[in-house]
Amino acid sequence: xxxxxxKASQVVExxxxxxxxxxxxxxxxxxxxxxxxxxxxxxxxxxxVTFASFDTPRGINxxxxxxxxxxxxxxxxxxxxNIVMPKKRPLYLNEVDGQLVIDxxxxxxxxxxxxxxxxxxxxxxxxxxxxxxxxxxxxxxNPLTGKPIESWYVGNETWSNxxxxxxxxxxxxxxxxxxxxxxxxEDAVNLIQPEFGADWTKLxxxxxxxxxxxxxxxxxxxxxxxxxxxxAHSNGRYVILQVQVTFNVGAARSWSRLRDYQEIKEGGEGxxxx
Length: 274
Prior knowledge:
- The structure is a single chain.
- By secondary structure, the protein is α+β, with helices and mostly antiparallel strands.
- The protein has one domain (2-273).
- 50% of the residues lie in helices and 12% in strands.
- It has helices at 6-26, 66-71, 95-122, 159-163, 167-182, 186-192, 200-217, 232-247, 251-263, 267-273, and strands at residues 2-4, 42-48, 59-62, 75-79, 128-130, 133-134, 141-142, 147-148, 153-154, 222-223, 228-229.
- A four-stranded mixed beta sheet has the order 1-2-4-3, with helices on one face. Strands 6-5-9 form a three-stranded mixed beta sheet, with no helix packed on it. Strands 7-8 form a two-stranded antiparallel sheet.
- A hairpin with a 4-residue loop joins strand 7 and strand 8.
């Protein structure tokens, strides 16, 4: 059971109305890889009163299937009062960074959830062929190869039956990468949190620090015996951490490659990259 936070809902509605502009301005791939028209969801901020589970997420995207979102649309929910504030700085952070995390944790979470749910899950389109009809220009160049794309979804093929058990972790990793990416732009940060103004880089820094922190904390959801992840978001965030510390690859490049593999149905190579 929850109640609507009208003030916060007005803020995320502003983000919804600016989504097409933000995608057109910053997406790190050709515009042909985007939907012809962005489907604006109903985005609502709620405060949870009570819940019948051991935990509740910070945000929800309904449904989490790209083919349904593309044809019908989707709904976003931000559960604002489900953000657990840190009581002390992580031991691996120096005092300056640790204090930043404590001071701006809730604002960082608001940015991360808002961009994760709206643009992360809402961007891009799957290239499909049904009954001889293509929803894309066959001459589109694959930015990973520099050649025309050679694969797409045919008939009843779906993104989930091609990427199988990594479907949800892959999608959550992509959505989180979007949130990271959009923390790097002043207008994107200040759009929903204008109080930062010229100090917007403080929020950017905390967003990135928090993703490092999450990438470490999610290890509790890894089953060492079975070598399996028990939670999709946890799997995705650990991947982001590994990209950060191992390959030193920026958010834009990682997000772009994940999205490209997803759209053109390159399950095998895409899973290897993931």
